[in-house]
Amino acid sequence: MTPDELQSLIEDATADYAVGETEAALAKLGRATSAAPESFEAWHALAEVNFSLRRLDDALAAAERAHALRPGDLFINTTLSRIWMERGDKARAEHFGAQAKIQSWKEQLKNPSGDS
User: What are the alphabetically sorted keywords of the record (predicted)?
Assistant: First the structure.
C-alpha cells in the first residue's frame, strides 16, 4: 500500500465514523494497520474510534501501538490519559496527562507567538 493509499484509507475510515458507519470505519482501520503497522495515524485513529465506542481494551491496545511509534506525541498521550481515566486508573491517566502537558509546553516554546 502506498502512503497516499494509506492516507486515503484512513480518511475514508474517518469519514465513515463521522457519519455513523462505525463498523466500516473499524474494518478500514484494521486494513490500514495490517498493511502499514508502522502508521501512527492509523493506530491513533483506531484507538479513538474504539474509545468512542467504549471498547476500552481495543482502544488501549491501539493507543499503545501508536504510543510506541511516537511516544512524544501530544495527542496520543492525551488519548491514553482519557482511556486510563475511563478504565479507572487515575495514576496512569495522570501520568499520560502530564506527558501531554509537557509536549504542549514544548510546542509553545518552539512557537511562542502561536503562529503556525
Answer: Repeat, TPR repeat
> Against a cut of 0.70, is the pTM above it?
yes
User: Would you call 25 exposed, middle or buried from its count of C-beta atoms within 10 A (0-12, 13-18, 19+)?
Assistant: buried
Helix (H) or strand (E) holding 39: none
**Which of 83, 108, 107 has the alpha carbon at shortest distance from 97?**
83
CA gap 83, 58 in Å, rounded: 10
At the top level of CATH, the class of 3-110 is: mainly alpha
- How do residues 31-69 score in pLDDT, each as one tens digit? 999 999 999 999 999 999 999 999 999 999 999 999 999
What are the grid coordinates assigned to 34, written together?
A: 495490517
Q: Which phi and psi angles does 19 have, rounded to 5°?
A: -100, 15
